[in-house]
């Protein structure tokens, strides 16, 4: 199932958890660091945020799979 396709979900009045992890906003990251190299997905700062051992790789897999045409 494509988790990025809103048609896969029923219309709800309230949704508190979808199971899809998101990253903080760029503004929030910039409050934590002045180094633009920290703002890459593979940086130590971003990896340190992830508490699930393989979470970064899983998120990239889902993103790339969901956006296959973008990565051709």
Topology, number of strands: 0
Beta percentage is under 5%
Structural class: mainly alpha
**DSSP helix fraction:** 25-40%
Unreliable segments of 5+ consecutive residues: none
Q: Helix segment count?
A: 3
User: Averaging pLDDT over every residue, what do you get?
Assistant: 76
The major β-sheet equals:
none
Q: How would the global form be characterised?
A: elongated
Report the end-to-end length measured between terminal Cα atoms: 20 Å
Q: Can you put this structure into words, describing what you see?
A:
The chain has 72 residues and is mainly α. The protein has a domain at 24-71. The protein has helices at 26-32, 44-49, 55-66. The longest helix is centred in the C-terminal third of the chain and has 12 residues, at 55-66. The protein starts with 25 loop residues before the first helix and ends in a 6-residue tail after the last helix. The mean pLDDT is 76.
Task: Report a brief summary of the structure.
The chain has helices spanning 26-32, 44-49, 55-66.
Q: Any descriptors?
A:
mainly alpha
Topology (SSEs and partners):
Blueprint: H1 26-32, H2 44-49, H3 55-66
């Amino acid at each position: 199932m494509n988790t990025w396709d809103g048609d896969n979900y029923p219309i709800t009045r309230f949704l508190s958890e979808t199971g899809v992890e998101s990253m903080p906003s760029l503004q929030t990251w910039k409050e934590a660091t002045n180094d633009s190299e920290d703002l890459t997905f593979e940086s130590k700062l971003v990896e340190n945020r992830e508490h699930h051992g393989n979470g970064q790789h899983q998120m990239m897999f889902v993103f790339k799979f969901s956006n296959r045409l973008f990565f051709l």
